[in-house]
Amino acid sequence: MKHKSVWMHIGAGSFHRAHQAWYLHRLIQQGDDSWYIALGNVRNDATPMLTELAKQHGEYVLETVSPEGERHYETITSIKKILPWDEKISALIEQGSQENTKVIAFTVTEAGYYLTPNHELDLTQPDIQADLAGQAITIYGALEKILTARVAKHGKPVTLLNCDNLRHNGERFRHGFLSFLRQKNNHDLSHWVEKNTTSPNTMVDRITPRPTPDVRERVKAATGIDDHVPVMGESFIQWVIEDDFINGRPKLEQVNVEMVDSVLPWEEAKIRILNASHSCIAWAGTLIGLNYIDESTVKEPIYQMAWRYVTDNVIPCLTPSPLDLANYRDVVLARFSNPYIKDTNQRVAADGLSKIPGFITPTLIECYQKGITPQATAILPALFFVFFERWAQGKLPYTYQDGVLDEALHKKMMLSPDALTQFITNPTLFGELAQSTDFQQLMIKTVADIKQWALNNH
Ligand code: NAD
After folding, report:
1. Pick from 42, 58, 218, 232: which is nearest to 140 by CA?
2. What is the pLDDT of residues 129-158, one digit of tens each?
3. Is the ipTM beyond the 0.90 threshold?
4. Domain 264-457 CATH class label
5. Which CATH class name applies to 5-260?
6. Terminus-to-terminus CA distance in the chain, angstroms?
């Protein structure tokens, strides 16, 4: 164990255990045990799980379920070391500063990077201010302490690998981290980081809901193991990584990780096909009184909305692509139809005000540039508009969560007689199209159609 290479992971959520840990486990299964994972967390909230996992020597059962309902159980063996949490993150510092730790990876959620809509570090955030004052409650403060100790001990290079669902996740993290160090006037470490670390972009994919108590029961019934901390996810899995590791890496390509020069085509396909269709289905399903993604996806008119959006508008915009986009679309829609993954419309409908500019507007703009009227794409913001109007009227069946929502301001806007005009002429949502009369007319007609559809189906 001592001389093996260590992949330290920060962020002991379910996703890491269903995704990255699974790939490294598969490598061990193939007889290559040159790498193992040391797992820890910046925050205290994973401590109960980590304590249980330590009692199980880092092993746990992963349950996966296919769209056809086939369940599969596997004991994951790649996590060989649990790093216990304390306020000073001592175990993370100790492990991260060891020479045999060659990759430091993390999943700390999208919000864990504290970036503004312009992708700058948000210095107004209390957590960031706390870390600037010397704490370690964000990935930035934690890495500053870990890497300072590393430089003091030997200064060997290390790859900093972001595995969160963020566009250009390596670059965005790196920009945030270097801004943090500069803000702290820690120029020595900032220069060291620039020279001695890399941050490859990655695209990660496997739907992993929070494990509910019935996972433990099913695991016990199927395997006889009374696992206190099992995880469950869909059978689909994908990981695409830019091959830019500064101090070695496991042979990930042997377990079907796609090692590429640029992750961009995969990222675009995922954001526009998977993430945007997901939101489309959640908004549409909510409008006709449905609670879950799977039941919404299999409603023929909703399935058609997502299918047409991808087929008529996204595929022409993303072609040529190294991916088989039509196949990707069909696989994604089959995954959303999985009745055994009870993902809620509420979860997926969240953050519409950021998803429109991030996931949808690029397709609208590129369609016009190609001379295509984006009728099928206009349905997505139209669905959101009607959904958002219901939110303002207090008619949604659940709380709507949106990181950039200003309750008073948005309610006032959505309840005013010219709500639609304000919405479609908003450059934050629609960029240059906010000025386009063609786009405005398209949206006015599409919103009217969607209102009628929602009325007829409710
Ligand atoms: P989870 O709720 O199980 O775990 C979240 C982890 O992040 C916890 O360890 C928590 O302590 C830590 N964390 C939260 N906020 C933090 C912060 N500000 N600073 C430092 N640590 C913080 O969630 P999960 O299912 O493991 O998902 C984590 C991330 O993985 C997602 O946000 C997403 O970016 C990525 N991901 C998840 C899925 C999925 O289906 N669950 C799929 C693809 C990608």
Report:
1. 42
2. 999 999 999 999 999 999 999 999 999 999
3. yes
4. mainly alpha
5. alpha beta
6. 60
